[in-house]
Amino acid sequence: MNDAKYIGLDVHQATISVAILDSAGKLVMEAILETKAETILQFIRGLRGSLHVTFEEGTCAAWLHDLLKPHVTQVLVCDLAQNNLGKVGNKTIATMHASWPSCCTGAILSRSITANTACEL
């Protein structure tokens, strides 16, 4: 049994929309979290298995990357706009289905993440 979970985050200043897929690509959970460190870490600590997280590069990307990295198996920050992958219906689900394979191969992995202390709520 593969216990991997693939977590897509749609990050905004006040909230984060979360979609979690299992190793077969089936949606197993959706949630909305406050964009606060303790809330995010509490949610992540409640998940089991190897956790692979992806989210789009944005103003909170560096802060969120540094927050999550010690607690998950993998963190990938992608530039979906550059690759025209963020223009579909539910953005979080679209992020998971459209970008994860490309991000895993490094095709759209963002290499420039800049700090933004405004996200440290």
Largest sheet: 5 strands, mixed
Helix content, binned percent? 25-40%
Number of helices: 3
Distance between the termini: 37 Å
Instruction: Report the uncertain regions.
Output: 104-117
Order of adjacent strands in the largest pleated sheet? 3-2-1-4-5
What are the secondary-structure elements, in order, as H or E? EEEHEHEH
* CA-based gyration radius: 13 Å
Please state roughly what percent of the residues sit in beta strands, choosing from under 5%, 5-15%, 15-25%, 25-35%, 35-45% or over 45%: 25-35%
Q: On the 0-100 scale, what is the average pLDDT? A: 77
Could you characterize the architecture of this molecule?
By secondary structure, this protein is α/β, with parallel strands linked by helices. Helix content is 26%, strand content 28%. The protein is built from three helices and five strands; from the N terminus they run βββαβαβα. Strands 3-2-1-4-5 form a five-stranded mixed sheet, sandwiched between helices. β4, α2 and β5 form a beta-alpha-beta unit. The longest helix has 14 residues. The radius of gyration is 13 Å and the shape is globular. The termini are far apart. About 12% of the residues have low confidence.
